[in-house]
Amino acid sequence: MNVALVDDDESVSRAVMRLLRLAGMNPTSFRSMETYLAFPGRYNFDCLVLDIYIDNGQSGLDLKARLNQEGNRIPVIFFSAHDDVETQTEIDRVGCHKFVRKGDNIRLLLDAVKEIKPIQR
Q: If we measure between CA atoms, which residue out of 1, 97, 94, 5 comes closest to residue 44?
């Protein structure tokens, strides 16, 4: 399974990438929305693990809304430390496969990714 991870926190990215590789997946990490959007193979991912708040005022919620506008239905798992009512309302608005809170057992993230069926190419 090809998984894209968009998170500006280097230590989190390293841990998630290691977890996904150990589970036999093929992860690619991006530090910003721009690097993900500029990646020529971005349509080849089976799933997107997306932080909600990224440095420079970027928002994973905005990225998901943009993907929705483009008609890109890649399954998104939001992975964030922010779990307040406003954030949950925005997550419901843009939609996602799952929300996993940073700080919870990281196995929950792996389980959420494993629920997604890889795209047949």
A: 1
User: In sequence order, which ranges of the chain are alpha helices (DSSP H)?
Assistant: 10-22, 33-38, 60-70, 85-94, 107-114
Question: What does the pLDDT look like over 90-99, one tens digit per residue?
Answer: 889 999 999 9
Task: Give the residue from 10, 21, 4, 18 showing the smallest Cα distance to 60.
Answer: 4
Q: Which residue has better confidence, 58 or 96?
A: 96
What is the homologous superfamily of the domain 2-114 according to CATH?
Response regulator (3.40.50.2300)
Residue 31's Cβ-count burial label (10 Å; 0-12, 13-18, 19+) is middle
pLDDT of 120 strictly over 70: no
Distance CA 34, CA 40 (A): 12
> Cα angle at 111 between 107 and 113, to 5 degrees?
115
For residue 5, give both structure tokens.
Answer: 């991870």
